[in-house]
Amino acid sequence: APRGFRHIAGYLCIFLAVCAWRLRKSGSFAVLSQKQAPRRHPRWAERKMHSMTMEVLMEMDEELAAEEASMIKRKTADFAEGERVEGVVVRDCGDSIHVDIGAAADAILERGDFIGAADRRVYLPGTHLNVTVWSKANHTLSLRMHRFNSCRCQTCFQPKEGPVHRQSCVQCWNVGRGVPPLFEANGKRLHCVVGPVPESVHEKVQALIKQGNTYWDTWAEKSSRPLQKGRLHGVGIQLSRNRTFPGTAQLRGRCNEVLGEMLDTEMVEVLNNATNEDVWQSFRWYKPPALPSREPGVASIDPADGGSVQSYIGQGYMAVLSNCSEDHAPPVPVAKLLGVPSCKETCPTCRSKGCQACEECCVHVDQDHSASLLLGIQEEDPIIDQMAFFVMGNKAFPLAGGRAFLFDGKVVPHGVWCMRGHYQGMAFVKKVPYKRRARKKPEVSRK
Ligand SMILES: [Zn+2]
Ligand SMILES: [Zn+2]
Ligand SMILES: [Zn+2]
Ligand SMILES: [Zn+2]
To answer: Which ligand gives the minimal distance to the CA of 347?
Structure first.
């Protein structure tokens, strides 16, 4: 019998050693089960030993759990705006969803008519969500969905009618009072046409930018507008100096292909079939410009006026100073889409002098000699915090999935807003040599 007891005591020591080792290794006793206990000693000893170790381990585990919980629960201040977090739905309160993101208090995902809001479905407790910390105002963590996944078409803003719709939707828009219209349709004054970027154009733009960067990357200045955010490169003629932009000889062929294909799209047909007789009556000083033409092509002097169709390639480019503050709020139509305050509310310059006077605001007009044909490309479901938008007057359109625009950049205040992400863009517009002329304000007559 003493021999037997010694055996049991021996097994107990080994078992406890194994327990301690496993505990240290895994940090939890969940891996321990009766199956893993030594098998060869009497059952009563096994049971007693097990209850003893269980008690000890339970206590240790409770301490560990408490310690872990206090470590995992982060303070509101420790979260960064724009930070991506995993969340678990706690409850759906109708106008908002309470989400556990490991913060001391629940974070709030609002329902609403803005990008990144919770949609209309019911969010069951326990559902995992990919969310972004959007703001920490008033000690409340407010969230947005991490990626853009809209149930609306971003050209006509109607509920999507199927996968074909996205690649075919063409829509004309009025972008605000006081802007002379480019054309009319059904008695409505319209300023622009918005449509898809054909798949083949997507590919051509990618190839063009890849080829272009082999030249542009070797420049001392990494952009044609080095003082502005992102990169912009011209393919065309520097009319004031009668020479071409670097890389133009190599790149103009591809630019002409993109221009040619875009001029064959339905959105151009819509514009070509439109009338603009009423424009002459209401804005007598305004002559709607033609589209940039196929002939004689990009970077070729048009003998008619000495001008040239230029192509501009943007990579994350914004018409704002490069050191512009990320705190400068987006223009009104983007702010509306994102459900945030606009530059008119937060920037003294935009509010009192207008966005065009503010060097931190992307909204501007250009001195062009034709209408603008512009396209912007971003992935189909970008991270919401990194989305790009094209602003025209009081409208803004996400570039997600690729979108093209026809408008007159002389009279429509416009610009790409893309504060934190990346996008690719291309614009075609005719420029003529700058001529000094007596400054005379155009006579404006509006009915
Ligand atoms: Zn649509
Ligand atoms: Zn401003
Ligand atoms: Zn502004
Ligand atoms: Zn512009």
So the answer is: 2
